[in-house]
Design goal:
Layout (H helix, E strand, L loop, with lengths): L3 H20 L13 E2 L5 E2 L5 E2 L12 E6 L5 E6 L6 E6 L4 E7 L3 E7 L5 E6 L3 E6 L5 E6 L8 E4 L5 E6 L2 E6 L5 E6 L4
Antiparallel strand pairs: 1-2, 2-3, 4-5, 5-6, 6-7, 8-9, 9-10, 10-11, 12-13, 13-14, 14-15
């Protein structure tokens, strides 16, 4: 047995379509279907039908940026994408408003950081892999995989750049930036 509240949306939709068809002049074409995304006038139509009108220059990037790391001097931004499209890191030259380098990733998660001098980019994947890239070209400098295969969900360099930290679940791994060897490991709840 159906409750009236379950039928109400369908009744409203049916009534609207009949009313809309009845009020449209004969031989007129229905309005063009508006889909979310970039519109001809430069605005962006959201799925809830709200419209955004960005100010300034926009740089085309991936479909779901989950993290942005800003270069120490503020000129560059590393943008991590983890949407339905190709997971990737894009290096954006902010003043020039252009992408200077891209690297495809197997399956990224959230961790992303610049070294304090801005020459390296650190990123972690869902399978526990860590990557260290040269910022200008995104050439791999170092790669490692954790034995636990947990997603790397947070990354950071020490202020002096001598160490970097990778968080995976409750584990925190500390690496020497000079040789990328693991210096120590501890659990976050160990105190």
């Amino acid at each position: 047995r159906m409750h009236a509240s379950a039928i109400l949306p369908w009744v409203c939709l049916f009534s609207y379509s009949i009313l809309h068809a009845a009020t449209r002049p004969p031989n007129s074409r229905p309005a063009a279907l508006e889909l979310p995304g970039q519109q001809a006038d430069g605005s962006v139509l959201l799925p809830n039908l709200w419209s955004l009108r960005p100010v300034g220059k926009q740089v085309a990037l991936g479909d779901f940026p989950v993290n942005i790391a800003v270069h120490p001097d503020g000129r560059f931004a590393a943008v991590l994408h983890c949407g339905h499209g190709q997971h990737e890191i894009a290096i954006v030259d902010v003043p020039a408003a252009k992408v200077t380098a891209r690297v495809a990733l197997e399956e990224a998660f959230y961790g992303l950081a610049f070294s304090p001098d801005g020459t390296l980019v650190l990123c972690g994947l869902t399978n526990g892999e860590l990557y260290l890239w040269q910022r200008d070209t995104l050439a791999v400098v170092w790669r490692d995989r954790h034995q636990q295969s947990l997603a790397i969900d947070c990354l950071e360099f020490a202020p002096d750049g001598k160490l970097f930290y990778a968080g995976a679940g409750e584990d925190i791994h500390v690496f020497s930036a000079a040789d990328c060897k693991q210096a120590t490991h501890f659990r976050a709840h160990d105190g």
